[in-house]
Amino acid sequence: MSEIILIAGVLNISISLILLRKAGVVLAFILAWWFFWMFISSLSLTGLFRPTSETYLLYILMLSSVTLGVGLHIFSLRVSGNQSILVISSIDEESAASKERFILRIMYFILFPIVLFFSFKAVYLLCTSVAPVDYRADVFGLRTGQSVLFGSTKINFLYGLLISPMLLASLFIGVAFYLTKGNGKIFTLACILVGLDAFMMFGRFGFHYIVMIGIIVISIKLTHDWKNTLSGFSWRTIIVLLLILLPVFLVGYLRENKASLAYERLLKLFVIDYHTMSFSMFDVELQNPLSIVHQTTYGRSSFAGLERPIAFISKFFGIRIEPQADVIGSYLHEYKTIGQGANGNAIKYNAFGSLMFSLYRDGGPFFIGLMGILFGFFVSKTSISIERKNTYGVSILMSLFFIGIYGIFQPVLNGPILLAILFIFLIFKVNLKHFGFVKGNV
Fold first, then answer.
1. Domain limits for position 20
2. Could you list the residue ranges forming a coiled coil in this record (predicted)?
3. Tally of domains within the chain
């Protein structure tokens, strides 16, 4: 299958670039990301089970459907005379300034106080009572049933329901303001907040977000104005990027048994296994007739990130709904054998079910193809926003980029990303002049 994966990858990336040209850099990056790690997984370099051909064909179906969605969008533009079916309207300078002030006030008066409080508490806990190797588990209450960081499940839940989506939304909006207005203030502050959030949770993904967003921002700038972008590059820029990347490995080092974390294991675990295990895990689930992946949920799994707040509100009316995000999360938390090491021992991992887990559970190959087409359509539509300096469109594009990149690690739509997109929609579509606190300078 390795050759087929390579051929499919080259074809899909080439077609997307031909259709979108310079605007296709984001989509090409997403496609290259998936096909590259799919190809690596087919080599079984670390002992993970090599997925079956049928499983790989499902992934190729999804990615080819994304390319088809791009083609449908371009076709719709030509048929309608460049009159888009769904308009992503831009905003004027006055409105942009108003929204920037609004976002900065949210960051200064809501996000920073909350995130800083829990960050200082994390430092205190690490220095006094919790060993680094146990801290991550204790944050989520895996050993005691209660989070040492948040203190109660309600606070933990509300943080995930409100603060986490707002952090992501501020990051995506920050990128949009930087690329369209040349203003990096929101972007810089959002990176600091996301980094602090990752530290206090002792997670690597927050730092990973910053690195990947930084890479795609540089890629976009190189594509559209490579001379000025290269002229602005310096050793200081490279050092900053390396300093951002360092916490990814440092946190992983502290979370692991230090004696066993040799260089070879570091490469195997953090680089290869973490990026390829979801392919093996999804294949194992497909082959298991008792797996919940075969329980059709007709969209609830893919939109589970929106179902959770609905379930929370419904409790006040005496209606109890079990969110599919909790069902999937609990199921994937169980360790499963997905490979065999060189010493003959079973390789067991948990939690790394990809986006495909949710898509397949909602309707099999048909739903995978349908969602792939929709994703490709909207990535194509919002990619044009870069050249048009459309801040709202670029914010949505960065959200889709996030889904495209992190869908390889987990059922990403079960997390805060859908609520983040909802926040972006509200920020850009609500008339902020009705809010008195957006007036004046920040």
1. 2-438
2. none
3. 1
